[in-house]
Write a structure and sequence with these properties.
Radius of gyration: 21 Å
Shape: globular
Order of helices and strands: HHHHHHHHHHHHHHHH
Strand content: under 5%
Number of domains: 1
Largest sheet: none
Low-confidence stretches: 186-201
Number of strands: 0
Number of helices: 16
Length: about 375
């Protein structure tokens, strides 16, 4: 390895280790911090190149901010940089989440921890609801996308498979956006037999590390949209299909992913640890992030050609709005677990006011919810 490449790799590693340990606030905040570092401060890329990479991350499944780290690493230091950039962004967050997962396993069933989570869960419902509203204003672009989102919301409660719903939403939007090109074509057979893909009834499946890995690998390979879509996929697989988690454990896992820096998808690390210890945490993390590296490798050479395709943009619009329909449905179900009395309802409503009106960081709100929970415990 020549000196110049080694220096570039060291720069990539240093930047993304720092961001992985300090980047709070979710993918939008992460990408803003990356822009400040690599465009404004270090001048590794110009604005046009950075926007091209952002567009590319929206066209492939997986966590956008992690894929941006992988793309930037590749632009700065080639194939070694691709691996170093993504790994260094994930690694600090993974270690932090593993530490919190150990604490959760050791103390999560104690009364004090229960009251702590009592205050945190309604804050999480508020954060997800607010994100859903913000994302919806961008994703809903007309009557068709509105209908797709509403249809996915309803069909979720009819036990239709979430992957089928995402795919169907994307296809319907793609056909609608390009209908003028298809007027003379027959559309017979283009609709998916969704009822054949319904979710199976809840039957507990024995835990195994290989099944844990492949389940997260599947999620990482098909998950479009915000990190909050992870809620729908994890609930369908780990709560409903496999029976390995409860709804309470799921909302706790999402809360940990929110309160820690780095990728929200390190929620997988938390779930892996509470199910299978350190091996489970490592396999879950590898499974959910591995597809992102593969998709970046495959898509990077095609960025100039695919970013202006009306077919691809139509597909993406449909998948994004279908993702929001899934988020809304799962949030409604998790709200029943989290909003259990007047105080938790008040915490959720107050958190939404602080998020929307005062733009308070979600990290501070989660800390506030934890304090309220502990105060309630002391008064009980």
């Amino acid at each position: 390895m020549n000196r110049s490449l080694f220096q570039r790799l060291a720069e990539v590693a240093g930047l993304f280790l720092k961001l992985g340990a300090t980047a709070f606030g979710g993918p939008a905040a992460h990408i803003a911090m990356m822009h400040a570092e690599v465009v404004k401060r270090r001048k590794w890329l110009d604005d046009e190149q950075f926007l091209d990479l952002m567009g590319a991350t929206n066209l492939i499944p997986g966590p956008n901010s992690t894929e941006m780290a992988i793309h930037i690493g590749f632009q700065r230091a080639g194939w070694p940089g691709l691996i170093v950039g993504g790994t260094c962004f994930i690694f600090p967050a993974m270690l932090i989440v593993m530490g919190l997962a150990w604490t959760y396993v050791q103390f999560g069933s104690t009364p004090a921890a229960g009251w702590l989570l009592y205050g945190i869960k309604p804050v999480m419902i508020a954060i997800i609801t607010t994100a859903l509203w913000d994302l919806g204003q961008k994703a809903v672009k007309g009557a068709l996308t509105s209908a797709i989102g509403l249809g996915v919301f309803v069909l979720y409660f009819l036990q239709i498979n979430e992957i089928a719903l995402l795919l169907a939403g994307g296809l319907v939007a793609m056909i609608g956006a390009n209908f003028h090109r298809l007027r003379k074509a027959t559309l017979k057979g283009t609709f998916l037999p969704l009822t054949a893909l319904g979710a199976p009834a809840l039957i507990a499946v024995p835990f195994s590390l290989p099944l844990l890995f492949f389940t997260f690998l599947k999620i990482g390979a098909v998950l479009y949209g915000s990190g909050y879509v992870l809620l729908a996929f994890m609930r369908a697989d780990f709560v409903t299909r496999l029976g390995w988690l409860t709804d309470q454990q799921l909302i706790d896992a999402i809360a940990i992913g929110q309160v820690t820096p780095g990728p929200v998808f390190t929620t997988a690390t938390f779930v892996g640890y509470i199910l299978g210890g350190t091996p489970g945490a490592l396999l879950a993390t590898l499974g959910i992030f591995l597809p992102s590296f593969i998709f970046v490798v495959l898509s990077n050479p095609w960025i100039p050609k695919i970013r202006n395709s009306s077919w691809v943009s139509g597909l993406l619009d449909g998948v994004n709005v279908a993702s929001l329909g899934l988020i809304a449905a799962v949030t409604l179900e998790l709200g029943r677990v989290s909003l259990i009395d007047p105080l938790t309802i008040f915490i959720a409503l107050a958190s939404m006011v602080f998020l929307v009106r005062f733009r308070i960081s979600s990290t501070w709100l989660i800390a506030g919810g934890a304090i309220i929970g502990m105060i309630r415990a002391a008064l009980t």
